[in-house]
Amino acid sequence: MELLKEMAPGLKRVAMLWNADDLGMTMRYRPSETGATTMGLSVQALGVREPDDFNEAFAAMDREKPDAILMVTDSLTVLNRKRVFAYAAAHRLPTIYEFDWLVHDGGLMSYAPDLQMQLRAFNRSSAGL
Question: Containing domain of residue 123, as a range?
């Protein structure tokens, strides 16, 4: 949330997309929701369960425009990531993703470390063993 706040200082409302049918994703969503509310942000909870639910999520964001989007990553959201990228770009919404490869694939920013860089560092350190 702090990265989104830096990107959009006027941030007041954040839409959060996650797979509501996946308990693990719901458990990852909840701390983000708590963090947002602790920062005084309003959360637009948009749990999706199937690809058609993204249309409903986008319609909800059209009705009540958020200032930014956070997407929790799982197979459902990854399979629909291009739709999220396109929606965010069309509506000029800063959007944050969990993994850096989503940024390389078209997303705006992530809050994860660069996994390739970590792997290279691990490989270099393992070579010295």
Answer: 2-127
